[in-house]
Design goal:
Strands 1, 2, 3, 4, 5, 8, 9, 10, 13 and 14 form a ten-stranded mixed sheet that branches. Strands 6-7 form a two-stranded antiparallel sheet. Strands 11-12 form a two-stranded parallel ribbon. The chain is an alpha/beta fold. The longest helix is centred in the middle third of the chain and has 17 residues. 34% of the residues lie in helices and 19% in strands.
Length: 378
């Protein structure tokens, strides 16, 4: 996916694995991954939180390792809160995961901060997240490259640290965030920028800025893996999908849904495809210094409200990844995302769940193309 190609490049799809699949036991996780593979999905994504807004959380690298052992799909952390950890053990974890999934793991990282108490309980001053990220990411990259690392005078005191064996397949780093510091970090220390809640136009400008930071830092020939994260709500109509999506986002972020609505598509798969298409099609010009092999990505997250019978809520985030050119995508690709991850349960959220699954395996999403959508992402 990081080679130069034309506008006819295939589109790949991925999903954010529902948290309930991990609490349902190994059998449920195996069956869920099997269903995703059968549906033609290409990538599995996981998030990461230590203790978010009162305790909920999940370790992104642990979940990524479990998924990597169950399939041959690409695995992405979107995103791992690196500033909350010591970089040396993180480098060991990433190295071990990359050995299990050579060439299949993308290390997405972010500074977090939506819940400052989560940061503080890890012994980290929230105001230092960005600086800690820069230092930690530099250390992790050097260790993964097989270097012996010594650092003093910053956040970490490290003498002669090394991680062996050296990986045969480098792990691409994708940096999340919206600030100028995040763009600079992605350009100087990453192989991609992972945006969220941006318009198509701002996303395109951000990608150009990231690649210019790389040029200024003397980094040439980067196989870019840029992405745009989008929450998306699926339903029989926009009117049916909106309240489900709004409830989930307001519960998680404690912020009115109206603040997200302009960049958050919802409705039928066709509605989501149309509203997302302009973001995917907003391909920035490649920098003059190199023939950029920029990858274009988009995430979609489906939200289902608690059921009266199961008390369960499911969230799905999918990634549509295109390589260069101006891609097109039909609604069938988003229908695959919608259908292959509809789960229903017969027990409560807190107990072991026996899940029944209904999924679509008749659409090969990798052969779909994303249409030229004139409707802007709202």
């Amino acid at each position: 996916m990081s080679t130069w190609t034309t506008s006819s490049s295939p589109v790949t799809l991925g999903i954010r694995v529902p948290h309930e699949m991990f609490v349902g036991g190994a059998t449920a996780l195996r069956e869920g991954v099997k269903a995703v593979v059968a549906a033609g999905i290409d990538r599995l994504c996981v998030g990461d939180h230590v203790s978010f807004h009162g305790g909920p959380g999940f370790d992104g690298l642990v979940q990524a390792t479990a998924l990597a052992a169950l399939c041959d799909l690409e695995i992405l952390t979107a995103v791992y809160l690196l500033p909350l950890r010591h970089p040396v053990p993180v480098a060991r974890q990433v190295n071990s995961l990359a050995q299990l999934a050579p060439g299949r793991f993308l290390f997405g990282v972010g500074v977090g901060g939506e819940d400052p108490n989560e940061v503080r309980m890890c012994g980290v001053d929230p105001t230092t997240r960005g600086r800690r990220m820069n230092e930690s990411l530099g250390i992790v990259r050097d260790l993964l490259a097989g270097q012996t690392v010594t650092r003093h005078g910053g956040f970490f005191e490290i003498d002669d640290a090394s991680i062996r064996p050296q990986l045969q397949h480098p792990v691409p780093v994708v940096v999340g965030g919206r600030s100028e510091a995040a763009l600079r970090r992605a350009g100087q220390l990453g192989e991609g920028y992972l945006a969220i809640w941006l318009s198509a136009e701002r996303y395109a400008r951000s990608v150009q800025t990231v690649e210019q930071y790389a040029v200024d830092a003397g980094r040439e020939g980067v196989a870019w893996r840029h992405g745009l994260q989008i929450w998306a709500g699926f339903g029989s109509s926009p009117a049916a999908a909106r309240p489900l999506l709004a409830q989930a986002m307001e519960t998680l972020y404690t912020t009115p849904f109206e603040n997200f609505e302009r960049t958050t598509p919802y409705g039928t798969p066709a509605d989501v495809a149309a509203r997302s298409g302009s973001a995917i099609s907003a391909r920035p010009m490649a920098t003059k210094s190199k023939p950029s092999a920029s990858a274009r990505s988009i995430f979609a997250r489906e939200t289902m409200p608690p059921s009266k019978t199961s008390g369960m809520r499911f969230r799905v985030r999918g990634w549509v990844d295109t390589i260069t050119g101006r891609p097109n995508c039909s609604a069938s690709a988003f229908k695959t995302l919608n259908n292959c991850c509809r789960f229903s349960g017969a027990s409560t959220f807190s107990s072991r769940c026996e899940l029944t699954r209904k999924y679509c395996c008749s659409v090969n999403a990798r052969r779909d193309k994303i249409p030229d959508a004139s409707t802007p992402v709202r």
